[in-house]
Amino acid sequence: MKKNLIIPVVVFLLQVSVFAQTDTSFQLVKTIKGDIIAFTVDNLDNIYLLSSSNQVKKLNANGDSVAIFNDVKKFGQATLIDVSNPLKVLLFYKDFATIVVLDRFLNIRNTIDLRKHNILQVRAIGQSYDNKIWLYDELENKLKKIDEDGTLLQETPDFRQLFGSAPAPQKIFDQDQYIYLYDSAQSVFVFDYYGALKNKILIRGWQNFKVAGKYIFGSTANRLYRYDIKTFRVDEWNMPPEISGATSFSFSASRLYALRKDSITIFNFR
Description:
By secondary structure, the protein is mainly beta. The chain has one domain (3-269): Neuraminidase (6 Propeller). Helix content is 0%, strand content 51%. The protein contains no helices and 26 strands. The chain has strands spanning 3-4, 17-21, 26-33, 38-41, 47-50, 56-59, 65-69, 80-85, 88-93, 98-103, 108-113, 122-127, 133-137, 142-146, 152-155, 171-175, 178-183, 187-191, 197-201, 207-212, 215-219, 223-228, 233-238, 248-251, 255-260, 263-269. The chain has a 5-stranded mixed β-sheet, with no helix packed on it. Strands 2-23-22-21-20 form a 5-stranded mixed β-sheet, with no helix packed on it. It has a 4-stranded antiparallel β-sheet with strand order 3-26-25-24, with no helix packed on it. It is globular, with a radius of gyration of 18 Å. Mean pLDDT is 88; it is low at 6-23.
C-alpha cells in the first residue's frame, strides 16, 4: 500500500561549531594493491573493491578475499555500491536504472528494473533500516521507499512544492532512525521515517560524504572532516602528506581509507 510521507515546512537548522586539529595522528595499518578504480567499506571494515573490468571483490578487515561478483557483462559499470548492511549489498547501475541485490557472499538475490515500475531517473539510492530501499526520483522530485520487488511502499510529496529549490541528492543514508540526503550544493536534509523534515545541516562542498554511526565524514581538496551528529562539532584535519593526491576516501568509526592508483592505504585515526 502506498503511503504519503508528510513533510512540515518549518526547518530547524543546526549550529555547527568547528574544531581544527593540528596535532593529527594517522597510524598506517596496511596497503592493499590491485586493479582498483572505486571502493567502499561497511561498518565491519569489510572492503568492497570495483575493478576496471567491473568485478566486485569483497575483502575482510584483515584484507583477505572472501567473495567475488563476476556477473558484470549485463549491466556494465556500477554507479554506486551500498554496503550499509553487510549481509546485503546493493549495486546500482544508473544508466540502466537497475539495482542488483547481492547476499554477503556476493551472490545475486534479486534484480530490480526501476523502469518497469515507472521510476526512470534516479541518482541516489540507500538501504533502509528494515531492509527496504530508499531512492530519490529526480523526475518526480520525491523520496521513495521500495521493496526488493520494486513495489512502492512510501513516498513524499513533490519537493518542488515544499522547497524553494528541490534537493538533488548524491547520497542517501539511513542511520539511527533518520534518513540523510546529501546535496553538495545545498546541505544535508534530515528526515524521520515518517518523511518529516527534521533538520538541514549546513554542510556543503564535501566530497566522499558518508554517514557512519554518530558521525558524518567528508573531505575537500586539502582537509578531512568529521561531524558529530549529536554535539554538532566538526573535527578538521589537514590532509596528511602520505595520502594527499588520493582520488577518493572512505571512513569507518576508527579507520580512514585512501584510494590512489591501484592501491588503498588504510589508517587508524583519532
